[in-house]
Give the backbone structure.
Amino acid sequence: MVENRPLLTLFSHLVLILGVLVVAFPIWITFVASSHDAVRMTQVPLPLLPGSHFFDNLWQALTEGVGNVKEVSVGTMLLNSLAMALMISIGKIAISLLSAYAIVYFRFPFRMGFFWMIFITLMLPVEVRILPTFKVVADLGMLNNYWGLSIPLIASATATFMFRQVFLTIPDELLEAARIDGAGPLRFFADILVPMSRTNIAALFVIMFIYGWNQYLWPLLITQDKDMYTIVMSIKQMTEASEESPEWHMIMMTTLLAMIPPVVVVVTMQKLFVKGLTETEK
């Protein structure tokens, strides 16, 4: 029997509402600031209600630069970030699927040794190996292009471990049935393993897309050409105005635009994302 506790229910809802307000208030302030002009954003107190310049600021941000990066539009930065995030997330999933497939279904010398070598790289984030990675990328001529932005960040021990655990839960009878039907290794991988890992792929795509979108240090190091700037690294540079005050209304508009793609990815793939993290039986 479920007990009816109105006071506890009221308290729970108040806590949830308070949590939503704490999370949503900075986003609201960003939206409000992006809808005012530059003069209003220098006045005290700061506005709490939207202004009338939202679409003007939006068009200016998408077609022109802001602050110290006036040479390149925010629209170009969004495209650069989108290309980098997609290449990183799709590349991580493809490489991790293949490496986990090889570790689980093929027998070769030092198989588990290679797996643990991949797993140990979790202790070596990009910041630790930044100098040798930059040297390799520079020697290969991949500065200021999408390959340099994405390839060094593609390998993922976390994704390999995740897909390995998924493949270990798949019954061996499926492999035997595929062999009886004449399916080769690639056919078994493409027609059975990948469809059965669909929810896990979706969950990993969401995580890796946000990981790639939010990259700051790596794009900052390898992009000297402003046409290759990403939106996250550019927001920081927009605030560093040398001779004039920062254009806070445009910076907030850029920040608002930077939040949209990750939110769209999470919202559109929410069901698959939750299933990929909670599903235990295939």
User: Anything to note?
Assistant: The two ends are 33 Å apart (CA to CA). The CA atoms of residues 122 and 158 lie 7 Å apart. The chain has one domain: 67-278. The chain has 14 helices and no strands.
